[in-house]
Design goal:
alpha+beta
């Protein structure tokens, strides 16, 4: 505890507060627990998430926790926005490789009115698909979904991420999008390597 207290300014503690029904007294209970946790944890910074297994709050909370562990997330966001613009994509999303939690995403200005639960839905679909692949001893690497309205590409990206690219221009050849993803991979791998803590010699 002494070590924790002495390094409190370097620490971020996250707490999930579960609730089962959307009632006023449940929200009040969560707010009271949050205030108590923050008071008892001073001077350590505490972030609380009100979560439920019945909606997207749990997925959002874990995604926020994963993002808080990334040191260069603001730089990553800027580069992802540039990548989205260069590709003329509707949206580009980075998922954490093991959990498929959202790390970052960039969306074209004209395409921002989208389903707010889409990330959780996509994550669940891909995780189920990966599970099916593993049962047949196949290794999931990438996939493409296409119809007359859009094309979606999901591919491994860096050591720790998958990328999803959404294109509404269905006339764009798949090979062109794949080449763009492969080209960007090297750049984002360098960003990831630069953010990784160096081993003490």
């Amino acid at each position: 505890m002494i070590v924790l207290h002495d390094n409190a300014e370097l620490l971020l503690s996250c707490c999930l507060l579960p609730f089962f029904f959307i009632f006023y007294h449940i929200f009040r209970w969560c707010s009271e627990r949050e205030a108590e946790l923050k008071r008892r944890s001073m001077p350590m910074d505490v972030v609380c998430f009100k979560t439920s297994i019945w909606d997207e709050t749990l997925y959002k909370a874990w995604s926020s926790i994963v993002v808080s562990l990334i040191s260069n997330v603001s730089s990553l966001q800027k580069h992802l926005e540039s990548f989205t613009s260069i590709m003329d994509a509707d949206e580009v999303v980075l998922f954490e490789r093991a959990t498929f939690l959202v790390i970052s995403h960039a969306c074209a200005e004209t395409k921002k009115d989208r389903d707010p639960h889409r990330f959780e839905k996509i994550s669940n679909i891909i995780k189920q698909f990966k599970l099916s692949c593993s049962k047949s001893t196949a290794q999931f690497q990438n996939m493409e979904v296409r119809n007359e309205n859009f094309a979606a590409f999901i591919d491994y990206f860096t050591t720790n991420t998958y990328v999803m690219v959404i294109m509404s221009d269905t006339t764009m050849p798949s090979a062109a999008t794949v080449i763009n993803i492969n080209t960007a991979r090297k750049h984002f791998e360098r960003l990831e390597a630069a953010a990784a803590p160096s081993d003490a010699s």
